[in-house]
Amino acid sequence: MKKLINATETVLTESLDGFVSAHSDLLTLGEEHKFVRRVQPKAGKVALISGGGSGHEPLHGGFVGHGMLDAACPGQVFTSPTPDQMLAAAEAVDGGAGTLFIVKNYEGDVMNFEMAAEMATGEIMTVLTNDDVAVETSTFSTGRRGVAGTLFVEKVVGAAAEEGRDLAALKALGDRANAATRSMGVALTSCTVPAAGTPTFDLGESEMELGVGIHGEPGRRRVALASANEIAEEMVTAILSDFGDQAHGGDAFVLLNGFGGTPLMELYLMFNAAEQLLARRGVTISRSLVGNYVTSLEMAGCSLTVALLDDELRRLWDAPVHTPALRWGV
Amino acid sequence: MKKLINATETVLTESLDGFVSAHSDLLTLGEEHKFVRRVQPKAGKVALISGGGSGHEPLHGGFVGHGMLDAACPGQVFTSPTPDQMLAAAEAVDGGAGTLFIVKNYEGDVMNFEMAAEMATGEIMTVLTNDDVAVETSTFSTGRRGVAGTLFVEKVVGAAAEEGRDLAALKALGDRANAATRSMGVALTSCTVPAAGTPTFDLGESEMELGVGIHGEPGRRRVALASANEIAEEMVTAILSDFGDQAHGGDAFVLLNGFGGTPLMELYLMFNAAEQLLARRGVTISRSLVGNYVTSLEMAGCSLTVALLDDELRRLWDAPVHTPALRWGV
Questions:
Q1: Chain B positions in Cβ-Cβ contact with residue A292 (cut-off 8 Å)
Q2: What is the Rg, in whole angstroms, of the alpha carbon atoms belonging to chain B?
Q3: pLDDT value, residue A84
Q4: What is the DSSP string of A175-213?
Q5: How many CA atoms lie within 13 A of B166 on its CB side?
Q6: Order of strands, sheet of A71-77, starting from the edge strand that comes earlier in the sequence
Q7: Alpha carbon A229 to chain centroid distance?
Q8: Is B56 part of the annotated catalytic residue set?
Q9: How many whole angstroms separate alpha carbon A152 and alpha carbon A131?
Q10: Which of B22, B262, B290 sits opposite A268 (nearest CB)?
Q11: Shortest Cα distance from A144 to chain B (angstroms)?
Q12: CB of A213 within 8 A of CB of A246?
């Protein structure tokens, strides 16, 4: 295992120390590294909290700040945070208007966020993200997995929370944004969890895992390495068939997301391939992001996320945001 | 070779097509993919042009926009652009106030930018960056290599150009910013140039290349993989010894730069290590960036850049910027 670390036990805490120090204008750490939260919480605003296993950076800590999350709870690498983390975060960022949890659909996360919601004193609602069209159940999930589309949900709900929308409205918006979003990924290599020390899965020199999960979970099938155009074709087809009639003739937000080990050159090349295929099927990209946003440590590969836009979602996507990983209009 | 590409011959052009399409609000392509430039050049402003081999994305194209570069000329991967590219870019972004080339110190780049400057009709000056303290001469360079510190030079000179400073003043500022900047890198793995198809260099399972160049050029020495703290110690020591007395008691900009294949978690952990070591030697980090900014395709590893700040450099760093890879205040 070749990693820039001191000891596997301290990877997370040392990384969080560096993260919060590099962004001390925006973020502060909760006690015992339980969460990162905005330096300046906003009274009267619904608090937005997400979290999950670490190793997907910048998700979620990198999306804490104005116009997005109020706090994020980092678990150990690829391991759910514990309920006391969410509970401590909820107390710390409570603005008196209730709390919305945004949770990726994995059994550990769902269970632990639910426990925290039951233990909390304030009102809590939850949006579950499950944008991955690759498989219907997986190693760590019953039902579809929540993957890179979570970024879109956090952004639009975060913008609406900043505008003062109430808890029930934000929950409804989050569900609607999630329902408008589909993703699919491909891995060219595995990643190595520091505490494990060996690759999560084996992939032959000329193989790829189509529909891979963000923890290296199996996808739809393992096939011979294909061209960028063929991979994009497979992703676009999977996503658009899943949308069915909804996707025709509209505009979309597209996230061409790197898993951590693929050069930006290749991500833009994949974006180019996906854009042409989408255009041919009547979907115009009106908003986009290309880069490493929801990663799997150093895994090589990428995912395509398509979110169908309407006037409200487009406006909320465009709204000002100031976080470590996304910033505009501020 | 596992890459998300269609054919090695079209990697660069397909990637540039995707890049410009994803950022069409900011950028446009020159004919024959010779350069990318700002959509809206500014009359009366000195034009800033950089470029170099591709594979270091987001450098340089990702830094084209308000407050930074006017154009960037991408060569093939790790190969200098040709003089006709710089010439075409200079013509396209000429604002009537002269042109400043910002060139990383590699023989091919220096020669080709010089030829372009000789062929051009307008007034051209050049800032050469050579921030890498690792070695005094290298595979592709006579004298020190220009590496990640180039980002700092492009940012501060870009801000000053936006304010209307003249060509000679910008040349002097660029030289001063470069002189205030030092970098050093480490590689844990090689990268693979698409056209070559095999790794640029071999590195044993428990080895690292200390002082590596951004094309995988040899560094100071090849040693056993060390801890993050030990690596940070080596980098900080190399950089601060090179600064000598200049570095005492001031504040600095630090770029903890990923080479493309190292997870963000590890980069923040390295930032944490570097910050503590710098503090112990009297250098406070007042501005920072952590992430993949000057990459070597999918190489695992990172570099540390330290730029000593004064009031002017700090103010220019903070000035608004709006490019694909850096954005604030706009």
A1: 264, 292
A2: 19
A3: 98
A4: HHHHHTEEEEEEESS--B-TTT-SBSS---TTEEEET--
A5: 2
A6: A27-29, A36-38, A71-77, A47-54, A99-104, A124-129
A7: 25
A8: yes
A9: 10
A10: B22
A11: 25
A12: no
Would you tell me which residues 13-32 of chain B have a C-beta closer than 8 angstroms to some C-beta of chain A? 14-19, 21-22
B15–A55 CB contact, under 8 Å: no
Minimal Cα–Cα distance from A37 to chain B, Å? 17
Is residue B53 pLDDT above 90, yes or no?
Answer: yes
- Helix (H, G, I), strand (E, B), or coil: what is residue B37? strand
The single-letter DSSP state of residue A217 is -
Q: Give the residues of chain A that fall short of pLDDT 50.
A: none
Q: How far apart are CA B287 and CA A182, in angstroms?
A: 37
pLDDT of residue B89: 98
> Do A269 and B302 count as a contact with CB atoms less than 8 A apart?
no
Determine contact: B58 vs chain A, CB below 8 A: yes
Q: pTM here?
A: 0.98
Is residue B50 a contact partner of residue B58, using CB atoms and an 8 Å limit? no
The phi, psi pair for A57, rounded to 5°, reads: -55, 145
Take residue B106 and report the two structure tokens written for it.
């590699």
Structural Rg of chain A based on CA atoms: 19
B84 burial (CB, 10 Å; 0-12 / 13-18 / 19+) is middle
A132 touches chain B (CB under 8 A): no
pLDDT value at residue A247 = 82
Partner-chain residue, chosen from B18, B227, B270, that has the shortest CB–CB distance to A272: B18
> Left if phi > 0, otherwise alpha if psi is -120 to 50, otherwise beta: which for B278?
alpha
A121 touches chain B (CB under 8 A): no
Tokens found for residue A324: 């470590």
| Contact flag B273-A14 (C-beta cutoff 8 Å) | yes
Residue A248 pLDDT: 77
pLDDT at res. B246:
86
Contact B41, B47 (CB under 8 A): yes
pLDDT of residue A330: 85
Residues B254, B153, B58, B122, Cα dihedral to 10°: 180
Helices and strands (H and E) in chain A: how many: 8, 14
- For A207, counting Cβ atoms within 10 Å of its Cβ (0-12 exposed, 13-18 middle, 19+ buried), the class is middle
Which candidate from A22, A225, A260 shows the least CB-CB separation from B263? A260
Domains annotated on chain A, with CATH:
14-179 (3.40.50.10440), 181-309 (3.30.1180.20)
pLDDT tens readout for residues B89-133: 999 999 999 999 999 999 999 999 999 999 999 999 999 999 999
Residues A173, A179, A181, A183, CA torsion sign: positive
Tokens of B288: 């920072």
Instruction: For chain B, give the percent of residues with pLDDT over 70.
Output: 100
What is the rounded distance in angstroms from the CA atom of residue B184 to the CA atom of residue B182?
Answer: 7
DSSP H or E stretch at residue B17: helix B11-22
| Interface check B195 vs A, CB under 8 A | no
| Nearest alpha-carbon partner for A158 in A141, A170, A145 | A170
Decide: residue A311, CB within 10 A, 0-12 exposed, 13-18 middle, 19+ buried: exposed
pLDDT tens column, B72-94:
999 999 999 999 999 999 999 99
Question: What is the model's pLDDT at position A139?
Answer: 86
Establish whether A56 is a catalytic residue: yes
**Helical segments of B137-290, H only:** 149-162, 167-179, 228-243, 264-280
Q: Which residues does A127 contact at the CB level (< 8 Å), separation at least 6?
A: A100, A101, A102, A103, A153, A157, A171, A174, A175, A178
